[in-house]
Every structure is written in C-alpha cells, then in structure tokens.
Design brief:
- The chain is of the alpha+beta class and 133 residues long.
- 41% of the residues lie in helices and 24% in strands.
- It has helices at 3-36, 40-45, 82-86, 112-120, and strands at 51-54, 59-65, 70-73, 80-81, 94-100, 124-131.
- The longest helix has 34 residues, at 3-36.
- The radius of gyration is 21 Å and the shape is elongated.
C-alpha cells in the first residue's frame, strides 16, 4: 500500500475510535444522571469504603462503588442502592459523606452515636454535604 493510504486509514481509525469512546462516555453519564438525578454528585465524589450518613433517618452505611452503581452496606441490609438509602425518609433528606483518615475497626457493628463520636474526634473527614432543595 501507498504511504498516503496507510496514514489515511490510521487517521480515520483513530477518529472512529475517539467518536465511539465519546459516545460511550456520554451514554454512561446519561445513565448515571437518569438513575440518581439530584444524587449524582454523591456518585461522582464518593469512593469505596467512605461512610455515608442520612441525618434525617439517623442511618449510616459504607459505600461500595462500581462503574455503574453505588451500593450502601448498612446494619440492616447488605446492599442498598444510593437512591433508596438517600430518599428513605423523604426526598429532602440531608446526606453527608465522610472519608476515614485511618482504618476504623468494626465499623459494621457501630451505632449512630459511635459515628457521631468519630465525627467529633475528627477521625473521619467530611467530603460532601448534600440536601435537595
């Protein structure tokens, strides 16, 4: 093949791959927005093992995040979707996300008073505070 044809095929292949990648990323972003709505900021800013607190219902859980969903592990349930956890009390519940500064032992066995104690002792750092308006 001629050199110009090779460069033309290479360039068009790169353009096609880039366009398909951008379309795929757009669909992913739309899916997150459709599923979580106002809670999408929590999806983007939280990480695995973060502590999430619903102050209206006095519930907390540990964030488990994958590429498509956030699941909250609470005392009552092994896996609850973020939207279900956040809107359990009402749509306007106040959600806070904390990131542990050090390893916290037996967090699954804690109660809400223990979480408040961790906050007051500054063993966990506030990452995000969210309330729908």
């Amino acid at each position: 093949m001629r050199k110009a044809l090779k460069y033309g095929l290479l360039t068009s292949s790169i353009v096609i791959i880039t366009v398909v990648g951008l379309i795929g990323f757009g669909f992913h972003t739309i899916e997150i927005e459709d599923h979580y709505g106002d809670y999408q900021e929590i999806y983007y800013k939280s990480k695995d093992s973060d502590l999430i607190v619903n102050e209206e219902t006095s519930e907390f859980g540990i964030v488990g995040k994958n590429w498509k969903r956030i699941n909250i592990k609470t005392k009552e349930k092994d896996s609850t979707d973020l939207y279900t956890f956040a809107s359990k009390g009402s749509y306007y519940s106040k959600i806070k996300v904390y990131r542990p500064k050090t390893t916290i032992e037996r967090i699954e066995q804690m109660n809400f008073a223990d979480v408040k104690k961790l906050i007051s002792e500054k063993k966990i750092e506030l990452i995000l505070e969210h309330q729908n308006e």
